[in-house]
């Protein structure tokens, strides 16, 4: 059975112009030369203190055009901030009309009715176990892209990016909940930084190095000195881990940035959260020592009768070479 949902918590920025690659290379943690029309890569945009203002997923539409997927609530801020540094570079940063349609299920073969090229995804599911998450891109036509998202099980996930925002899309399968898709992002430990948490976390504490969003061999970009120093000279004391709580809340947005407690001591913050199926799934940025000795983790605004249970991270948290 296939389910679908519109993802209105995410949005799209377009970077267009002959200097797009050079400009992005000087602003982001990722080596943008490795971004192609077939492979989307994660990246961080940080302030000079190395604290992440946004996490993004980039792919190349043409040699002079790139698209970035990011949280909708921080997109205007990121667009305006990046535009401040364009100066004389030949690049235009803009929002573009679009629709983001997520599909997931055990078998996505019915989606080949959208394009026969989707069969590639059906034949090669992306399972994010013991490896960095990867995102394969297929161009369906001049206005539509399909991006394969990783999963932790046999579920397959596909995001269709449609640049035609006027025409009602042909939807396949039954309507699902956006929360179901967000739950899967939490299970694969894919942090999305938005308005509530921008500037709160250094890149490594939200696993940006572990998920391949940082290239330590590229040149300078905002926050690079701090991020590199932490990598080469520091010990990793904080990481982001998935967790679940056996209660639900109608306003999960209010949880973002909330303190995580061990007894009366704050030991971390909530990065992402979603309630689905009677539970609340969260990504928690934590002091690693707080996870030792079976310490009971709770949220500051919930009592201790609602403990947090940590889940497995599907990729290595060891410091990359």
From TrEMBL:
BP terms from Gene Ontology: iron-sulfur cluster assembly
Superkingdom classification of source: Bacteria
InterPro entries attached to this UniProt entry: YgfZ/GCV_T_CS (IPR017703), YgfZ/GcvT (IPR045179)
Full protein name: Folate-binding protein YgfZ
Species per Swiss-Prot/TrEMBL record: Pelistega ratti
